[in-house]
Amino acid sequence: MFKLLYHNGEKTQLTFYNKAPLQLTAGRQQLVLQYQQAFDGEADSAFISVPIVLYFFAKPQQQLRIVASKPRNKSEAQSFATTPEFTLVDLSRGSEVGFDTILTPRFGWQNGPNIALLDEIKKGQQQPDQQRILNQLKLLYQNANAEKQTQFLQWLKQEKQLRKDTP
Description:
The structure is a single chain. The protein has helices spanning 74-82, 115-124, 130-143, 146-165, and strands at residues 2-7, 10-16, 21-23, 27-37, 47-48, 52-58, 63-67, 87-90, 95-96, 100-103. The chain has 167 residues and is α+β, with helices and mostly antiparallel strands. It is globular and about 55 Å long. 11% of the residues are buried. Keywords: Signal. Belongs to the UPF0319 family.
């Protein structure tokens, strides 16, 4: 199961299981999630990930779902807690949504606030520097191979068409 610790810098305690839909407003999103799973009903067998900071953009009336394979045993749960793997899916289009993640270190969490996590949460409350985003996009495009550049251009055409079709 996932716990939603923060949404755009606001503390929350929402708990949801794999494939739970997320209803979000349009725009830039920052979610801070934490994976938690116990086996055998024992607290000492619980696997808890470091906080996972997830960045993405939501569109109007878009319903998103985090999809992850549920670990079936302790070994899989331990692996997932260390390196969580999931996708973000747009249910209306049946396609994956691009996102970025940061796994924050666990230091200081028990004795006080996690400084690395608090820094990321502050970023969620700030408007991104548009010039920096443009520079990052250019760099990523230039470093991609020809196949990925073609896929990106196809995605960009689809996005432009969607904007034209949306009133």
